[in-house]
Amino acid sequence: MTTTTTKADATAEPAARETVLDARGVTMRFGGLTAVRDVNLTVNSGEIVGLIGPNGAGKTTFFNCLTGLYVPTEGEVRYKGQVLPPKSFKVTAAGIARTFQNIRLFNNMTVLENVLVGRHTRTKEGLWSALLRGPGFKRAEAASEKRAMELLEFIGLADKAQHLAKNLPYGEQRKLEIARALASDPGLILLDEPTAGMNPQETRAAEELIFAIRDMGIAVLVIEHDMRFIFNLCDRVAVLVQGQKLIEGDSQTVQSDERVIAAYLGEPIDETPKAAAPAEDAAPAAGDTTEDAAETEADADAPAEDEAPADDAPAEEGTPADDAPAEDASDADDDTPADAADAAKDAAPGKENDA
Amino acid sequence: MTTISENPQAPAAAAPAKTADRGLIGLLPERTARAVVLAGAALTVASCFLSWTWTPRFPGDLTVYGYPAGLQLQVLVTGVLTVLFALSSYGVKGLGWLTPAGADGAIKFGALATFGTAWFTVAAISVQLGGPVNLEPGGVVLAVATLVTLLAALDLPFKRPAVLPVDPEDTRWDQHKQSRRNRWTAVKAAFAAPHAVKKLPPLPSAVEILIIAVVLGLALSVFTYGIGTEYDELFLGFLITAGLGFAAIGASGLLKQATQLTSKHQNLSIAGAFIAAALFPFTQTDDQYATLGVYILIFATVALGLNIVVGLAGLLDLGYVAFLGVGAYAAALVSGAPTSPFGVHFPFWAAILVGAAASVVFGVLIGAPTLRLRGDYLAIVTLGFGEIFRITVMNTDGTSGPDITNGSNGIASIPNLNLFGFDFGQPHTIAGFTIGRFANYFFLMLLITAVVVLVFRRSGDSRIGRAWVAIREDETAALAMGINGFRVKLIAFALGAGLAGLAGTVQAHVTYTVTPEQYLFAGPIPPNSAFLLAAVVLGGMGTMSGPLVGAALLFLIPNKLQFMGEYQLFAFGVALVLIMRFRPEGIIADKRRQLEFHENDDTHEPAATPAKAGA
Amino acid sequence: MNELPQQLVNGLLLGSMYGLVAVGYTMVYGIVQLINFAHGEIFMTGGFGALTVWLILPGGTSMWVALPLMIIGAVIVATTIAVGAERFAYRPLRGGPRLAPLITAIGLSLALQYAVWVWYPEAKSARTFPQIPGGPIELGPVTIQTGDVFLVIAAPICMAFLAFFVMRTRTGRGMQATAQDPDTAKLMGVNTDRIIVIAFALGAIFAAVGAVAYGLKYGVVDYKMGFLLGLKAFTAAVLGGIGNIYGAMIGGLVLGVAETMATAYVDQIPGMEQLGGQSWANVWAFVLLIVVLLARPQGLLGERVADRA
């Protein structure tokens, strides 16, 4: 059933933008501790949404609420209009697939088998058909295998199909985890720090991979620490601090928000180098002029948007925010955090309304 | 013994350090060493035709010249193997195929096997007859020749693995540990195959099938020889010879080639293995060894069923024998046995259904509450269930409880089966061979084994089997892949229970009587929960042939080595601990794990369990 | 029905013995998430340790002198075996496959049982255990058998000691920290290896005291006594909420009372006349385990574990 839905999505994607994930007022308490407080988040089809926040901000808890590992104390999570069932395997069956922060492959299974396990929810063959091996069983197995090989082809691991998962290098294990998640034909994929521990080349490859997944019509929600990665990648970014959503908006908006900077970087002394880091890295020569930095940022975003032809919504959100980086960068360049804070404050209220 | 014998498969292929071209002991240069090995092995072979002792009082009569007997035969076999490997290492034409992974590892193991069996024999003669004076010159020649061969073999150079140097700043104990570890690594490397296994040249399938048939025939004869060993010394010698000889063949690379062939023609190999097993009763003149055979089959079949639960799904079932008991009791109660209070006589097919169904019901009753929880709970609940089953059966004797199972006396005089006019109780003559009662049941049990093998293979290589392995590997990740963990685990558990019940229905008829004491957690007679678990663990969890081999060994060792007597269960517990410590994957490593060692090997089919001659 | 108070006391006594052994299961489980199946056998070796001391002492030694020495002997034997098992059998497997330590535990359990069976003199059948002199004590409607007096005194002392140890000492707090989160505890400077050894040792000490109590209560020790008692002690630990040290004691008491009551009164339930009496006691204990797992898998006091899982 869901299989067909997904396929329909893939074709209908450019036309209509559907809300895939809708989390409303999600609150999660453990005893006296509130790990997540009243978080709203929506993910639309064809969209890549990032979720960032400092350590202990409740990202993973929120993730677990989305994947059925926890049942939110308050609020609800809907996937395509349906309230999510409270069991993680039912969530996957509904159409949300995930990867893990610490890679959790089935180590002693082959690469192909790992992906085939991902097909579990989309196949029905039970014990009896496995024992009797009727034509239906063989057809289903062949179809699963074909699909799995396609996915391995997609992530570039087809030639290693018979290797044991645990013998793959780190970066390929990450990719395999993504392929395994894709095997369940999800409408939304949740990636938990997909580039943790990767080198810059691998990170770039992961970026490409995620864009390609989005182009398959699958919505993506990414948790990440690597800010540059997420700002390059995401149409929208939400920032979670101390269990609450601080802000949500496009990359520039979030990047320039002074509270985000404060929350992320803590001490003002650390703030400037790190805040400027993405820009500086991208354009090493342009350390002095604010315009250069801003432009580089814009450039970095541009190709991403080009790759996704139907990016109306993010573009709309992006337009007003285009001013923001300029302001931000100019202030940041002055090396006066206080100014940066003021400037961002001015920009902030409007954005929050947008969100 | 087993630990050493499996070394060549250990991942000893660490990067070669500075090419130190010297052997493990370094007495002789390579060329001399190789020549000495060949000469020594040849001399060993020759000595097998001499008299080893002066009196036939030592079992097997080793006094005759020119006619090897008993242990001499075993030494002869390993000696010939060593000679062949040595010749192959000289590049003698027509022998290259013997050592597709290089000869030196195989030579070392061959020499070790010869040495082990020979010196065991010499020691046994000396001890039994009161001193080495009882050795004839042939025996002395043998002892010297095998020792020299072994020493020379250890002089053969090998690639020394890179080891961590001992850190002089460590404590002395740590230094000691490190140097010990290094030495061990070197020993492992010395016995490892020198290079990767050469791929088999493309052969016509007829030839390949012929090779498989020969391999299976060899396996059958080794097994038949082992089961037929008549005295302790011969069986111990057999264990040494077979264990180390197997290792030698493994180190030569032949084993891997054979595995490649069998996995290429998997179904055929399995069918062949069953034909070989079915031929077993025809190799026997009386029913004595067929009795052993049928008990081994029962044990092995139940162990294979347990392997679905433990090896594939990773659920530790410590009361598995109780499901066998449920099946056996159910079948006994409806068998028309005079002591059964029901007094009904179901046809066998119905009894099988009743037995299997009863076991499944109990499996679900036990599994449903516990499989939702952490795996450890299942272990303890099944342990409890095994015990409670026994107590309940003991109590339902009409005095302590309702009259159902006749208490500790059990249900006796279970009638023999009669299928399509074939009376299992009577001997039959087939093609000139007399097939006795136990042989009849052997065939029936073989059929049940085939069913279990089929179920194991087919369920293991399917959507549900992958789900089991996924759950075993990482339950959280498996759930996140959309696998309904509870459901899938319950299926595995109930299926395992049902297969045990199935075997139980036959067991009830084979043993005439079912009593509570047949179904213990641990006891001296094999089908009990601890032995079943050990068969699975020793043989190799998650493999098909592992539990079959493990069960055969665990049945034969206590059966053949009567002198172990009361130490048996103790030794057994220690063995479990040691296996877990040193070779947790068991004798036959899961193909999935084997893949680690030859990653770029294309001949391996996915998700295939190794198909080797098991029973 | 006026035997009810007596049955209740019997149940509590039985239960406190279960509780003593259950502490070992729960403590080890709480810290390393391992069901130490061999714990029942450690209990058993404790019993034989005590018996050995008694046999070594010159004949006619007063029980009042002998008993403390026997307890010490039991504790030494049980602790040595438990710590040895941890060091040489379990520790090398830590972080390995999940099934490995469980199978090791079974192996250990068999090896210990049959080591005693083979090598301990005349241990192939039950060996008599010395008894405290004196008659039963009458307290109103309740009689406490001589063999149970030790339990009445020892169990509360042990529990008080344990509570003190866990709550007040540095090691005890380290233990709690390790149980909560081993990695963090390690980072905070808790020597987790040491904590684990201590958990095994403490469990063994309690099991040893339990074994002496068992010997005095039943008058015999035998090589098999650890199997069923270990099973029931584990049931008690689950009942109380595995990982929770107080839960183990409470679970033991509940199990003891339930078992005694079932033995005494089940046959008065219409339709179950034949299912009462001592021979069904173990069955009822096991049924209770299943029921608890169904109804409240985290156990009576086991909220913490439920959160973690």
From TrEMBL, chain A:
Q: Has keyword ATP-binding?
A: yes
Top-level taxon: Bacteria
Region named Disordered: 271-355
Alphabetized UniProt keyword annotations? ATP-binding, Nucleotide-binding, Transport
Matching entries from InterPro entries are given as: AAA+_ATPase, ABC_AA/LPS_Transport, ABC_transporter-like_ATP-bd, BCA_ABC_TP_C, P-loop_NTPase
The UniProt regions of compositional bias labelled Basic and acidic residues, in chain numbering, are: 342-355
Matching Pfam families: ABC_tran, BCA_ABC_TP_C
Q: Indicate the segments forming the ABC transporter domain, all copies.
A: 21-267
- Which is one GO molecular function term here? ATP binding
Keyword Transport listed? The answer is yes
- UniProt biased composition (Acidic residues): 289-315, 324-337
Q: Where is the composition biased (Low complexity)?
A: 274-288
Q: PANTHER family per the record?
A: AMINO ACID ABC TRANSPORTER ATP-BINDING PROTEIN, CONSERVED COMPONENT OF ABC TRANSPORTER FOR NATURAL AMINO ACIDS-RELATED
Provide the protein name.
ABC transporter ATP-binding protein
Q: Which organism is it from?
A: Streptomyces omiyaensis
Output the lineage of the source organism: Bacteria, Bacillati, Actinomycetota, Actinomycetes, Kitasatosporales
UniProtKB/TrEMBL annotation, chain C:
Protein name per UniProt = Branched-chain amino acid ABC transporter permease
Subcellular location per UniProt equals: Cell membrane
Q: Which residues cross the membrane?
A: 12-32, 39-57, 63-85, 97-120, 149-167, 195-216, 236-258, 279-295
Assigned protein family: Belongs to the binding-protein-dependent transport system permease family. LivHM subfamily.
**Keywords tagged on the record:** Amino-acid transport, Cell inner membrane, Cell membrane, Membrane, Transmembrane, Transmembrane helix, Transport
What is the native source organism of this protein?
Answer: Streptomyces omiyaensis
Q: What is the lineage of its organism?
A: Bacteria, Bacillati, Actinomycetota, Actinomycetes, Kitasatosporales
| Keyword Transmembrane helix (UniProt) | yes
Topology in membrane? Multi-pass membrane protein
